[in-house]
Design a protein that fits this description.
The complex is a heterodimer. Chain A is mainly α. Chain A contains 13 helices and no strands. Helices cover 80% and strands 0% of the residues of chain A. Chain B is mainly alpha-helical. Helices cover 73% and strands 0% of the residues of chain B. Chain B is globular, with a radius of gyration of 19 Å. The interface between A and B is medium-sized, with 36 and 33 residues.
């Protein structure tokens, strides 16, 4: 079997284990609905109501769409926290010692958070949009789903990059994932148009996940042509690919450094 | 009183060591940036007070949720709950002091929001009614402490309730009009909103920053305090019941 074949096999098994964990140990149907979905629906409604306060339907639509998409990408950051879960369960040293990159196993283990984000986000859109008179592009639903998957996966790449740093300092896992999520909420055009920010902030936003993908989704809602949408979707894919390369380049190095000084198992920082 | 001060000091030491609490404080500037940015992008500078008040209350509430979920279960986890309960000091006093410490710490959100508004957006925040602002913040901190006590009791009484700890932020922000006044909610929801002290706090804090005279201040401050006192009473009763039960069953140290 080729190297790629081995990696895909590990990825597949890891994803299967991750799905089983998510469906049984992490969430039950009741805790998913009451513990996660209700909160996400309320979050989208909260920002949509801010649009009502501003007094223009265009603002309602901007805030509602941006925050409904943000819900999906938020789910990706669970992988940053979950990496430390492996450490707590005692499986991380085994993964690091195995011949396959631990990144592949960890990416597979957290893959269940991608469909989780997609379902939550689409559910929130379906419930909140009619309440605030925002029309959903039902005819273009497959394209919406594809773009939503793209932004969620590209954010997932960034989240796995951050997971490498969290390995070195497990105590920062919540802070790292929260700050990353908030940076995206604030600076990727989710609620605030990028034009409000100084040039330097706008430049940084170009290399963050979500910025271009969300623009493509807004274009989809506005009925733009395929070439405009594909252009921005392509940029989002490039950004996601860039973060994946960064993850691959740094993860093994960070894991090896953790092995050398023992922090991969014993660090409490 | 010494026990109360001791509890406050203990909790402040825990806060320094546990990044969980600092996380909630870290979120404040981001929300301030988002709300102030939205208001600026829409050209609605008249809504700046709404954008300033909301992050302050959101920080306070998030911290309150964090402490109410942890205050008993963390002691259980490290095996000191039995010792705390065995001391002559009332358990409720210890919990109240620890929750109060975190709530007071949450008022740092006022400074954070002010700094973001001033440095990030060049907004000069004018406090037109400093008495109303001080009174509203003090009453809110007390009511927050009382309410956290109810949640702490509920989380201990029904272990599964902690699953929903994270759910209690945005629905409450929406229902209590933390950012958008409750007049924007459907009519049938508004009476429910008025049972949440945050709805009175949000209105009072916004009014303290507006040039127009604030109306009915005493009545509204009383509403905040009464709802907080109700929470404290219910929380104390729940904690007493819980303690009685776990002592009786011998499960005090068990989750």
């Amino acid at each position: 079997m080729s190297r790629l074949g081995h990696m895909l096999r590990v990825l597949g098994w890891a994803a299967l284990v991750g799905f089983r964990d998510t469906l049984g140990a992490v969430y039950t149907v009741q805790s998913w609905v009451l513990g996660l979905f209700v909160r996400m629906v309320a979050q989208v409604a909260f920002f949509a109501s801010l649009g009502q306060l501003l007094g223009r339907q265009a603002d309602v639509e901007f805030l509602l769409i941006g925050n409904a998409i943000m819900v999906s990408t938020s789910s990706s950051f669970t992988v940053t926290v979950a990496t430390v879960g492996e450490r707590d369960a005692g499986t991380l040293p085994l993964l690091v010692a195995s011949p396959t990159s631990p990144l592949v196993a960890l990416m597979g283990r957290g893959a269940s958070f991608v469909p989780n984000g997609l379902i939550t986000s689409l559910g929130a859109l379906a419930i909140v949009a009619p309440l605030y008179d925002v029309s959903l592009p039902w005819a273009r639903l497959p394209a919406l789903l594809a773009l939503l998957t793209l932004v969620t996966v590209s954010t997932y790449m960034t989240a796995t990059f951050l997971a490498g740093f969290v390995l070195r300092s497990p105590g920062t896992r919540r802070t790292v994932s929260n700050v990353a999520r908030l940076v995206m909420m604030a600076f990727c055009g989710v609620s605030v148009p990028l034009s409000v920010y100084p040039e330097v902030v706008r430049a940084v936003a170009q290399v963050l996940p979500l910025t271009h993908g969300l623009k493509a989704i807004r274009e989809l809602f506005a009925g733009a042509g395929a070439s405009d949408i594909l252009g921005d979707a392509g940029l989002e894919a490039l950004v996601g690919g860039g973060w994946l390369l960064l993850s691959l380049a740094t993860f093994r190095w960070l894991a090896d450094a953790g092995r050398r000084d023992g922090s991969i198992v014993f660090s409490t920082a | 009183m010494r026990a109360l001060i001791g509890a406050i000091r203990l909790q402040l030491q825990i806060v320094v060591a546990d990044r969980g609490y600092l996380n909630e404080i870290l979120t404040n500037p981001f929300f301030a940036v988002i709300f102030l940015g939205v208001v600026r992008a829409a050209g609605r500078r008249d809504l700046t007070t709404f954008a300033i008040v909301a992050p302050v209350l959101m920080t306070l509430w998030a911290l309150s949720l964090e402490i109410s979920g942890n205050v008993v279960s963390a002691d259980r986890g490290v095996g000191i709950l039995e010792l705390v309960v065995a001391t002559p000091t009332r358990f409720q006093t210890v919990v109240f002091g620890r929750v109060l410490a975190v709530t007071l710490l949450g008022t740092v959100g006022v400074v954070e929001t002010w700094l973001v508004a001033r440095i990030g957006f060049g907004v000069e925040v004018s406090v037109h009614h400093p008495g109303v602002l001080a009174g509203a913040l003090a009453a809110t901190a007390l009511a927050m402490t009382g309410t956290a006590l109810v949640m702490a009791g509920a989380f201990v009484l029904a272990g599964g309730a902690r699953t929903f700890q994270n759910t209690m932020n945005y629905p409450i922000y929406l229902l209590a009009g933390v950012l958008v006044p409750i007049s924007y909610l459907p009519g049938w929801l508004r009476p429910m909103s008025r049972l949440i002290f945050l709805s009175w706090s949000a209105d009072l804090l916004r009014d303290s920053l507006q040039p127009e005279p604030a109306q009915d201040v005493l009545r509204r401050l009383s509403a905040v305090l009464l709802l907080g006192a109700g929470g404290f009473l219910i929380g104390s009763i729940i904690l007493r019941l819980v303690l009685h039960r776990v002592r009786h069953l011998g499960t005090i140290g068990q989750e």
